[in-house]
Each structure stands twice: as structure tokens, then as C-alpha cells.
Design a protein that fits this description.
Ribosomal Protein S5, domain 2; Alpha-Beta Plaits; 2 domains; eight-stranded mixed β-sheet; four-stranded antiparallel β-sheet; 14 strands; binds (3R)-3-hydroxy-3-methyl-5-(phosphonooxy)pentanoic acid; ATP-binding; lipid biosynthesis; lyase; EC 4.1.1.33; diphosphomevalonate decarboxylase
Length: 326
């Protein structure tokens, strides 16, 4: 009754921003991401008859409270799906620079979905796993697959058609993704709360939604044809628009710090010098810079010169979920 799975984090090129159903984690829009090779979570799940509740151990430390609750709530869903009634020990380790604020719920819930179903010997398709992982954290549904991935929002109210599929494998297009750490502190407005407030109060949210279809079409085409400049232009524009919606929320909020803007401007300057580099930002101050492998050294060197940059991590497209023998 034990299995171990590994899942990698992903970075959205077209952002998931806003839910139409909070309980089922149904998004307002499709999103597209790249799975990253360097950042991942490895999780072992052991179902045991002698337990009175689930046990969660993260990086060797047993956690209680809200952390343990999140895991238990997710395992309740697994128990409901698989019709199994026992509790489990969940042991996770993050190969993510957690102190750098890059810890991701995406790799965590994707690994947990895979390991828990495997431990119970439950047959599940990739789409089924994606649907399950989605209910732990929306972006986790994309971490089931490697390379370039699209999460289809679906049309139904029960969530059965809201899952991700792979657009292109990690071997099919080599890109460089540089995670730029400017601030290690925990973000102030969590993505769940940020999305909700934006959907409910931002007058810019309708504009965001209305502008997505062309971004999605251009991104799919850029991935299919491996046209980097087209991809970069759209992903940077999309990130800017997502962050613009937060400025219109009530009360307004922003994820950027002055150091975030410094990095953004350095990337724009690189382009003025003829180097194709583009940025994207999630629900926090750190920046991801995307370029082609031939330019990664130049881009890294330029970013290193910025006083505000605390650390840089170089990633490439990485694999989907896989199981480890224990
Ligand atoms: O799934 P969550 O709650 O981690 O939300 C992810 C939100 C963004 O990172 C901002 C966008 C995305 O698509 O990953």
C-alpha cells in the first residue's frame, strides 16, 4: 500500500487567473504552461490500518494545522474516488528552493494525486489524474505532463471536462527558463485570495477575459511552429495583463516590488540590444525570464549584475509525473 511519485513544477505562459467554481477549482479560462526540469516534489504515500488520521511529513518535519488539513482534505477526495477508507502517511520532499519563495503547490498536489492513487492500486488515466490534482491546486493539473501543456477550462459544471493535455513534449523544444529571485519572503496575497478578489471586484477583469482567445491562439501556434519571438511577445503581454487586473481590484493589490520592475526593465533592455528574452511573473515578486539556450549565458550574466537579484536558477522544459520504486 505504498507508492512514490515525482512531479515537477510548471510556469504559466498564459495565466490561470480566476475560478468559476471555488470548490471544484474550475477556471474562468484556459491556461498554457511549461513544466520545469529543476524544481520538483517527490512524495511517498503509505496507507496503514493502524492510523487514526493522516500524517504529513515535509522535508523530514511532521506538520500539523493548516498544512496537514490541506493534505487530509485532498486525501478525503482520493478516498471518495477510490472507495478506500484508511488513513495514510504522506512523506514529501521538495526539490524547490523553498526559501526563495518558489515552493509550488503544483508539483506537490500532482505528486500526491499520483502517489496516493498508485498506493491504492487504483487505475486512473492521465486525464483522471489531472482532474484529481486540479482539486488540490488548479495549476497542479498541468504538472501531470511534461513540456508544453494546456489546461482546458471545460464547459461542464461537474469538472469532468476540466483537465490538461500535452501540446509538445519536453524533448521537442529546448528553451531556457531562468528563475530570478529578488525576494524570499512569503507573498502577502495568496493566489486563491488574489483571484477571488480580482474576479469579484476588478473592473479590468472582463477585459482580461475578453483578450485571452487571441493570446491562446497565438501561443498554441508559436508552440506548434517553435517560433520563439511570437511566444515571448505573447507570454510577456499576458503576464502584464494579469497583473493589471489586480491594480483594479478593491482593495487594490500588486505582487511586484521595485526589484521586480528592475528585472522587467533589464529584460526589455536585453531586447533593445537584440537578445530575445521575455519575462513572466506569478502571484509574487519573483520573475521568470525565458530565452533560447544559445542566449542563456548572456542573459544570466546580465541579470547577475543587478544589485536586486539575490539568486538565479536555470531550468529547461522538464518531464511529467513519474513513479519511483521504493
Ligand atoms: O493553482 P494556484 O493556486 O497555484 O494558482 C496559480 C496562479 C498563477 O500562478 C498566478 C497562474 C498560473 O496559471 O499558474
Amino acid at each position: 500500500m505504498k507508492a512514490t511519485a515525482r512531479a515537477h513544477t510548471n510556469i504559466a505562459l498564459i495565466k490561470y487567473w480566476g475560478k468559476r467554481d471555488e470548490q471544484l477549482f474550475l477556471p474562468m479560462n484556459n491556461s498554457i504552461s511549461i513544466t520545469l526540469d529543476q524544481f520538483y516534489t517527490t512524495t511517498s504515500v503509505t496507507f496503514q490500518d493502524d492510523l487514526a488520521s493522516d500524517v504529513f511529513v515535509l522535508d523530514g518535519v511532521e506538520l500539523g494545522g493548516a498544512e496537514q488539513n490541506k493534505i487530509s482534505t485532498f486525501l478525503d477526495l482520493v478516498r471518495k474516488t477510490t472507495k478506500h477508507h484508511g488513513y495514510a502517511v504522506v512523506e514529501s520532499s521538495n526539490n524547490v528552493p523553498t526559501a526563495a519563495g518558489f515552493a509550488s503547490s503544483a508539483s506537490g498536489f500532482a505528486a500526491l494525486a499520483a502517489a496516493s492513487t498508485k498506493a491504492l492500486g487504483y487505475e486512473i488515466s492521465d486525464a483522471g489524474l489531472s482532474i484529481l490534482a486540479r482539486q488540490g491546486s488548479g495549476s497542479a493539473c498541468r504538472s501531470i505532463y511534461g513540456g508544453f501543456v494546456e489546461w482546458h477550462m471545460g464547459e461542464k459544471n461537474d469538472g469532468t471536462d476540466s483537465f490538461a493535455t500535452q501540446l509538445l513534449s519536453e524533448e521537442d523544444w529546448q528553451l531556457s527558463i531562468i528563475s530570478v529571485m529578488v525576494e524570499a519572503k512569503q507573498k502577502k496575497v495568496l493566489s486563491r485570495e488574489g483571484m477571488k478578489r480580482t474576479v469579484e471586484t476588478s473592473p479590468f477583469y472582463d477585459g482580461w477575459l475578453a483578450s485571452l482567445e487571441p493570446d491562446l491562439l497565438a501561443t498554441r501556434a508559436a508552440i506548434a511552429n517553435r517560433t520563439f519571438e511570437q511566444l515571448g511577445t505573447v507570454l510577456e503581454r499576458n503576464a502584464m495583463k494579469m497583473h493589471a487586473t489586480t491594480l483594479g481590484a478593491n482593495p487594490p493589490f500588486m505582487y511586484w516590488m521595485s526589484s521586480t520592475i528592475e528585472v522587467m526593465q533589464a529584460v526589455q533592455e536585453l531586447r533593445e540590444d537584440g537578445i530575445q528574452a521575455y519575462f513572466t511573473i506569478d502571484a509574487g515578486p519573483n520573475v521568470k525570464v525565458i530565452c533560447q539556450p544559445a542566449d542563456e549565458r548572456v542573459v544570466m550574466d546580465r541579470l547577475k549584475q543587478l544589485m536586486c537579484v539575490k539568486d538565479l536558477f536555470l531550468c529547461h522544459p522538464g518531464p511529467g509525473i513519474h513513479y519511483l520504486t521504493t
